[in-house]
Design brief:
Strand content of chain A: 15-25%
Number of strands of chain A: 12
Structural class of chain B: alpha+beta
Number of domains of chain B: 2
InterPro entries (chain B): 2Fe-2S-bd, 2Fe-2S-bd_dom_sf, 2Fe-2S_ferredoxin-like_sf, 2Fe-2S_ferredoxin-type, Beta-grasp_dom_sf, Diverse_Oxidoreductases
Order of helices and strands of chain B: EEHEEEHHHH
Bound molecules: flavin-adenine dinucleotide, FE2/S2 (inorganic) cluster
Number of strands of chain B: 5
Number of helices of chain B: 5
Radius of gyration of chain A: 18 Å
Helix content of chain B: 25-40%
Structural class of chain A: alpha+beta
Helix content of chain A: 25-40%
CATH superfamily of the largest domain in chain B: Beta-grasp domain
CATH architecture of the largest domain in chain B: Roll
CATH architecture of the largest domain in chain A: 2-Layer Sandwich
Largest sheet of chain A: 5 strands, antiparallel
Strand order of the largest sheet of chain A: 4-5-8-6-7
CATH class of the largest domain in chain B: Alpha Beta
GO molecular function, one term (chain B): 2 iron, 2 sulfur cluster binding
Number of helices of chain A: 10
CATH class of the largest domain in chain A: Alpha Beta
Radius of gyration of chain B: 16 Å
Oligomer: heterodimer
Protein name (chain B): Carbon monoxide dehydrogenase
Distance between the termini of chain B: 54 Å
Shape of chain B: globular
Distance between the termini of chain A: 45 Å
Number of domains of chain A: 2
Domain 2Fe-2S ferredoxin-type (chain B): 2-78
Pfam families (chain B): Fer2, Fer2_2
CATH topology of the largest domain in chain B: Ubiquitin-like (UB roll)
CATH topology of the largest domain in chain A: Uridine Diphospho-n-acetylenolpyruvylglucosamine Reductase, domain 3
Shape of chain A: globular
Chain lengths: 261, 161
Amino acid sequence: MYSFDIQRPTSVADAVSALGAEEAQALGGGQTLIPTLKQRLASPSVLVSLGAIAEIKGVCTGDDGALCIGGGTTHATVAKEASAYPALAALAGNIGDPAVRNRGTIGGSLANNDPSACYPAAALASGATIVTNSRSIAADDYFQGMFATALEEGEIITEVRFPVPEKAAYMKFEQPASRFALVGVFVAKYADGVRVAVTGASEDGVFRWTDAEAALSSNFSADAVPAAPSGDGMISDLHGSGAYRAHLVAVMTKRAVAAAS
Amino acid sequence: MTKVTMTVNGKTVSGEVKGNTLLTEFLREDLRLTGTHVGCDTSQCGACVVHVNGEAVKSCTMFAAEADGAEVKTIEGMANADGSLSVIQQAFQDYHGLQCGFCTPGMVMSAAALLKDNPKPTEAEVRDYLEGNICRCTGYHNIVRAIMAASGQDVPAVAAE
Ligand SMILES: Cc1cc2nc3c(=O)[nH]c(=O)nc-3n(C[C@H](O)[C@H](O)[C@H](O)COP(=O)(O)OP(=O)(O)OC[C@H]3O[C@@H](n4cnc5c(N)ncnc54)[C@H](O)[C@@H]3O)c2cc1C
Ligand code: FES
Ligand code: FES
């Protein structure tokens, strides 16, 4: 690793001002960033750890009934405490392994927007709102392609608000070596329609499978899931071809619909 | 350099660390607690698992500065006060849950974290919990049996028998 200083502010305001320094970067649970630093793929001058900021940790229910998760909340805490949204709690409880879940945070996962990460699928399928120190961003506007998001330099995710669906499930076809999703599909059924978000498959990162949304909004059953989307633009690597991933998108969507509760 | 103070295996310790000093480095090189192993240094193998404030974490993927003020427990803190092996450690010996022993500190720390939250896990729960702990020798069966035994439950027969 290159050398850098670490700061541990205890409020969002102090973190934001620390992040104003040249080449400063936020540190969440470090489960993605520390390996990146070890490979010397990042060279911050100062890391601003968000781990000591109590106000961005925890799970609660908002006035509008949405489930609100602080940006610094670990996957393990979400798995334990998001019982109001069981599909989301189950997703969090199946990220990586227990030690990763004890450190990794929802804010870090959404800020990183890995094309195979689990939380982006949940946020997009739920039409979640990503709240930062300066504004609220709708999930539909937030994800902007592989590792790209609407976040500005130095902007911190302080909370994520998930409208709780009538029924939902996340089905992850796990890539056993990395424990990320080879393909993961999150299906959420709301009173006004069904949303389907796919991770792991597209070269553009997480996306909504609108054909499936339309079909499932009129008939919420596994049989209604359309034929697999085209493999064009799907990730192709040693773990699976684009066509294979496209096939998995339909299979995992069917499984998610069948499992939705 | 920043000064950090933490409790490690019940003793208060302090040291000067750089921003990029990992918790493993602080434990192994500064405190000379070399029981915590580094297998991969890429967050994959779990040989470096220790407890921070009671939770299992990979100490190769946490900075020492972030453990300032924390309560840390390593494999050196697992034995009973009189020096005899703890129930989990003894079960690893009794059930041949180790061969080269490289993964063992992490396995024992993960097992202890599991049994704290879930004192009577099923075999499937044990295997699931050990997802982040890799062993190149045992084939896992005897590790699972050791943990089942340490939890006071019947020890399952395994496929290899
Ligand atoms: C072995 C292993 C298995 C894994 N398996 C999975 C898996 O199955 N599914 C999955 O989805 N993920 C998986 N992950 C990734 C894991 O979920 C990470 O915790 C997560 O991607 C990053 O979160 P973090 O809090 O650790 O962020 P960090 O690593 O600290 O930071 C990641 C990025 O986000 C930025 N950042 C951090 N917090 C914030 C914030 N609040 N606001 C704005 N920016 C922020 C940082 O500056 C950095 O750029 C795995 C990781 C490992 C090591
Ligand atoms: S050395 Fe930390 S996970 Fe392998
Ligand atoms: S006993 Fe050798 S790696 Fe597990």
